[in-house]
Design goal:
The complex is a heterodimer of chains A (about 550) and B (about 100). With about 550 residues, chain A is of the alpha/beta class. Chain A is built from 14 helices and 29 strands. Chain B is globular, with a radius of gyration of 12 Å. At the A-B interface, α6, α12, β24 and β25 of A face α1 and α2 of B.
């Protein structure tokens, strides 16, 4: 594929379309000459600073783009911290000579500089122009990935070849950050190189997407985290009539989200698969379909792992990935990762790093973490407390103890990866080979109680409703072919919920008038009515649904001393 | 009937599937995100979705305003009380298909 050096000569080539709009900022459209002037201002300030490396962070994509090109034209290598969190900036500080953009201590830029005082820009030298991105490695330490201009240009050529036609006359909107490769390429570099205006502000919420600015046909550069959570009730009319292409990358888009986007926006999303290390690898339309390679990308499977070779890589060698894959037709399907990296809502998370950080707290002596996929994916931890941990746990209780553990992890673990579920055990569960399997960890997190909704909470009567989800631990083995809720679970729940709302004394001693009239199956919507008689210390209960009464009875309590 | 504040706390607990947390554990004035309850950006999307479903209310496209509404249970209550439409369901939001 012949590479046209579009990025290198972006600001130097005179092409007869000088007044075209490069981007839409909050202040209005920004034309090429105005963008070039901004780049020159950045260049002028940065030529005057010592050193060859700068770290750039800015929320606004137009300012970011001007700073990036300004730094490149000043001969600087540009590091892009993934975020502006203190930890990321501290790490970047050790590797660069100065900060630029929206960062503490950033180099000041004079945007009022007279054009005559600024240098004429000359084309970038592709060999000397590069940037550095960060991604988390399996040890948890971020890994720096360098990208030279020809690698970036090669990605853009492949994207243009594959999707360019569908993007004609569009404005590019994005809901992902340009501090990562996907956002950088799709939201800024691709539009700049192929002369499509981009919208400078990131659309972070569904409401901002629904209120799509302007009237032009639109492209949205998005991620599953947002596409999975689109409220059906928003007014999507503008989006429906203007959306031409929706890109999704960062993790697999579930089929339900794929369908929802297609239905709400009349625009089936295009998924992109790739990584910071490899760049773009493949695309697909329709969840569950096999992935097909992007133009110029070769792939093969070696020992179950996907390996790629392309001009997006730093050399012509095959590069192995840590993604398990299987050839399907002319493409491939992904079968999970081979290392201890998990993706939590598109953020790469090192499971080993969380475990090490837990051990370093001094509160636990052994720990394993796993990923639970519920309403959202989350990290769950199983840990054996140390003597100090056990003392703290019994002194302050589980909730506050977990909060303390989260707080000790907070300075080195991304907030999205802080464990949200905790089980404290005497020893980690192991199988016959002395291994702790994922299944054994997951089993510890099956819910014991359904999520409830209180309807009444008075001094002597209470009512609540809930649905019985199939994942409840009490369905395990009861029965494999025909799951039925064990009646004793209803009694256990009554004591638990009764204790939340009434001052139950001591302990439960006996049951009267117990009746199980109807089976409770997964998916049932149950209503529980409870009445408390303090004089006799009895708690009456009745579980009903639209089918009728399922169970009822009276529980007797006695003070602990008796 | 329980208060709106208790209802919102319960909505937060069921939407976030918070473990070992009862409405009484949530300080109405404490920040919901980062410190405090420790909710993150994905939780913000989930909570926005839950408010849509439960109260039929739409958040503003202005992210600063949304940040203010989500700053604490108290702020959220004030926002819901001023903008709610008919409740669409009395079931816990997490349980809806």
């Amino acid at each position: 594929m012949a590479e046209r050096p579009l990025l290198a000569s972006l600001l130097t080539q005179v092409d007869g379309d000088e007044d075209r709009v490069v981007a839409y900022a909050d202040s209005g459209p920004v034309t090429l000459p105005s963008f070039r002037h901004q780049v020159q201002c950045w260049q002028a300030a940065l030529v005057a600073t010592p050193g060859s490396r700068v770290a750039l962070y800015h929320e606004d994509s137009l300012t970011f783009a001007a700073a990036l090109f300004g730094a490149w034209h000043a001969g600087k290598q540009v590091l892009l911290p993934a975020d502006a969190l203190p930890n990321s900036l501290e790490r970047a500080a050790g590797q660069v000579d100065c900060f630029i953009g929206d960062l503490p201590g950033a180099v000041p830029i004079n945007f009022q500089a007279a054009p005559a005082a600024l240098r004429r820009l000359s084309a970038l030298d592709p060999k000397l122009t590069s940037l550095v991105l960060f991604t988390s490695g399996s040890s948890g330490e971020p890994v720096a990935i360098s990208k030279a201009l020809p690698q970036l240009q090669s990605e853009l050529s492949a994207l243009e070849l594959c999707f360019g036609e569908r993007l004609s006359e569009t404005v590019i909107f994005g809901s992902v950050s340009h501090q990562h490769l996907y956002g950088l390429l799709f939201r800024i570099l691709w539009p700049l190189a192929y002369r499509r205006p981009f919208y400078a502000r990131r659309l972070c919420t569904p409401e901002q997407i629904a209120a799509l600015p302007g009237t032009a046909p639109a492209v949205l550069v998005a991620s599953p985290a947002q596409l999975k959570r689109l409220p059906k009730s928003l007014d999507w009319q503008a989006v429906r009539s203007r959306m031409r292409v929706v890109f999704s990358s960062g993790g697999p888009l579930p089929a339900a989200a794929n369908d929802a986007v297609e239905q709400l926006w009349r625009c089936p999303p295009i998924e992109i698969f790739g990584s910071t290390e490899t760049g773009g690898i493949a695309s697909r339309q329709g969840a569950d379909n096999p992935w097909s390679a992007l133009p110029g990308v070769q792939w093969r499977i070696v020992d179950e792992l996907l390996a790629v070779r392309s001009a997006h890589l730093p050399n012509a060698e095959w590069q192995s990935t840590t993604d398990r894959a299987e050839a399907v037709g002319a493409g491939f399907q992904l079968r999970g990762r081979s290392d201890r990296i998990a993706k939590i809502e598109e953020t790469r998370v090192s499971l080993s790093a969380i475990e090490q950080a837990l051990l370093a707290s001094g509160l636990v002596e052994a720990a394993k973490v796993t990923v639970l996929n519920e309403q959202r994916a989350m990290i769950a931890a199983v840990a054996v407390p140390t003597a100090a941990g056990l003392a703290a746990l019994s002194a302050i209780g589980k909730r506050l103890f977990c909060q303390r553990l989260r707080a000790t992890l907070a300075d080195r673990i991304d907030p999205i990866a802080l464990p949200r579920r905790w089980r404290f055990v005497d020893t980690l569960p192991i199988d016959a080979q002395a291994k702790t399997t994922e299944a054994m960890l997951a089993a510890l997190f099956k819910p014991r109680l359904p999520a409830i909704h209180w309807l009444v909470r008075d001094a002597d009567s209470a009512a609540l409703e809930f649905s019985v989800c199939a994942e409840l631990a009490c369905f395990d083995g009861h029965f494999p072919a025909l799951p039925v809720l064990p009646g004793v679970a209803l009694i256990d729940w009554t004591i638990h919920w009764g204790g939340e709302v009434f001052a139950l004394p001591g302990h439960f001693v006996r049951i009267e008038a117990l009746k199980f009239q109807r089976l409770v199956r997964p998916g049932a919507q149950l209503h529980l009515q409870m009445s408390w008689k303090a004089a006799t210390a009895t708690l009456g209960f009745c579980y009903t649904s639209t089918l009728g009464t399922h169970a009822s009875g009276r529980l007797w309590f006695a003070a602990a001393a008796q | 009937m329980q208060t709106l504040e208790a209802e919102i706390k319960e909505l937060i607990i069921s939407t976030m599937a918070l473990e070992d947390t009862t409405p009484d554990d949530i300080d109405s004035a404490a920040p919901l995100f980062n410190e405090g309850l420790g909710l993150d950006s994905i939780d913000a999307l989930e909570l926005g979705l839950a408010l849509h479903k439960r109260y039929g209310l739409t958040l503003s496209a202005d992210s600063e305003a949304t940040r203010r509404h989500f700053s604490s249970v108290q702020a959220l209550c004030a926002f819901v009380a001023a903008n709610r439409h008919q409740p669409q369901s009395s079931l816990p939001v997490g349980q809806l298909a």
